[in-house]
Structure formats: structure tokens, C-alpha cells
Amino acid sequence: MKKYKNIHKSITTSVDINEEILQYLPMKSLARFKVVSKQWRSTVESTYFAHKRLVRFGLPTPNVKLLIVHSKFNEDLNSTTLLLNTFSRDHNNKGEICLSSSSSYTFPDNPIDKSQDKTIQVLGSCDGLVLVRIHKDFRYIHLINPTTREHQTLSPEPSENELRYKMPFTAGFGKDVVTRSR
Predict the structure, then answer these.
(1) Phi, psi torsion values for 16, nearest 5 degrees
(2) Where does the UniProt annotation place the signal sequence (predicted)?
(3) How many domains does one find in the chain?
(4) 22 and 105: one domain?
């Protein structure tokens, strides 16, 4: 009887083929595949790759009508979860408004002080990112990516005392269509 040795053969694929395959994966899988190699991580996090995915799966349509954000406080973990629901017209063009996507993000460092009014203001959304202000005085602005479960707290907006001239302050998204950067 012949004994067979376990022969491990490695398969080498080009970067283009890997990128093409990765484009078809759901975002949750892509987030897991970022740890495979530095090359895969840089591919998945690149703006070029994000733009190709948006084009492949369709750019956001103008029929999105409503983004509802509400919070849920978890006393055990001292954290706050934002629930983000997007409503748009149904795909059958009957004019009905239906839930088109739902996601959540949990702030590990609870930004909502229990003593304050838990008001959340959505400043905008673009390509899956959501910009919100939290608290009664709206000083802290948070940029959230619910898909990757990452967020960044932006510098507080200037207070009235810091402004030389009283002018309204607002925040929002901008996108350069030439460079595809936000």
C-alpha cells in the first residue's frame, strides 16, 4: 500500500483578481478579511475600492426619504447604542415608504451623559457614514461608520465666547466628485 504525503500547494492570485473577488463580499466579511494581510487591509480601506463598490452595487439613489436615529442606553455596560434606520420608497414604485436598511453602533465610551437631555441631531450622511451631534448643547460631533463599527469624535464646535463675531456654526458632508474624497 502506498503512503501519500500531505502536499500543500499554495495558490497565488493577482492583486486585481483579489480585488475583483473582494468587491462582491458583504461589508461585514470585508471587515473580517482586513486582518488577512496588510495588502488586503489597504485595499479594503482605500477610497478607490470604496468607490468601485458603490458603482458596482449602485450609487445611493435620490429616493431615500428618511434616516431615523434613536438611542438606547445600556446601564450594565455604561454604553449607548445608536439605531440607524433608513426608509425609502419601495422597489415596486407603489409610492409606499419601507424600511430599506437598518444598522446600529454602540459607543464604548458613552458620550451621552445621563444628566443631560439625550437629544441626537443627524447632520448628514454620505456613502454609509453618518454625522451626528449629541447632547443638549450639541458641542460634540461624531462621525460614525455603522458597517465597520468605527467612530471618531470631532473637535467640539467653537463656543460663542470663542467666536470673534457671532455667526452660525454648522457641520455637514462635502464630496469632491473629481478626486472622490470626502
Answers:
(1) -65, -40
(2) none
(3) 2
(4) no
